Amino acid sequence: MMEEGRLCQWSVFRSILAIVQWWGFNVTVIIMNKWIFQKLEFQFPLSVSCIHFICSAIGAFVVIKVLKLKPLIIVESEDRWKRIFPMSFVFCINIVLGNVSLRYIPVSFMQTIKSFTPATTVFLQWLVWRKYFDWRIWASLVPIVGGILLTSMTELSFNMLGFCAALFGCLATSTKTILAESLLHGFKFDSINTVYYMAPFATMILAVPALLLEGAGVLHWVQTCPTLLSSLVIIFGSGVMAFCLNFSIFYVIHSTTAVTFNVAGNLKVAVAVTCSWLIFRNPISIMNAVGCTVTLVGCTFYGYIRHLLSQQQPGTPRTPRTPRNRIELAPLINDKLDDKV
Fold it and tell me: Is residue 99 in a domain?
């Protein structure tokens, strides 16, 4: 009994440790990126994204090939271009839109809009795949959508470009998720192998546009920046933190249940919003805070309903419109992999 008690205590401690370090890396990446755009005046989201991808590609190579902490999942060259490349393209758009939104709107607003992702994913799968969803899934989206609308209408630092970038970022995340279900079918990718294959493609896709659109601006910033060395350390440090975030997701996935992960994910948004406000002091109205809270509660409720439905057997009656085949019963998304940077 003592051994079982110790194992249980260690399991709980490991879960808490995994969640805390995941929160730490995630919030650090968000705050560092905002600091780069706002305080360092390095307002080049394509270049920042490219640096993140380069650091992530190097980090994944070191973990898999040098340190051998994770086994490499072999993917044939043809599959890399047919399956991995389309995913990398959407993956790239997703990260760029996130960085663009961070440049123009506060972290609190961006994180709240990002919580809209479950709604866009459900809608896209219903629209494109004609996939069935239990009525409780649709009901759980109501507070998410309502909270987003309330937050947007009362946001004191509202910027249309930043808002659109964040909103289209949700669509890109949902598209990436849907593509992953079809293109990566049969590949049991973990977060590190995902980065190992996608980051080089994403770097290749983004390098030319970043050079053409932002090259002159970056060169001018390098020539005029009064604290060049420390600024470059912060910029490349954010890339290292971005890779560490991917690595941390692996431990969180294996240390927590789906429900715990969902709740921790929503609490992470609250932590990010609080830390951002303490550092940048962006104005937040009472109704704006209420809208953010309603959205996070809706996301938690959505995750809880997803968990309940996943526990039901295929033959268990759900509603008068019980699905007839396995495709309709397939899980919506792997909620544990939606935070990859």
Answer: no
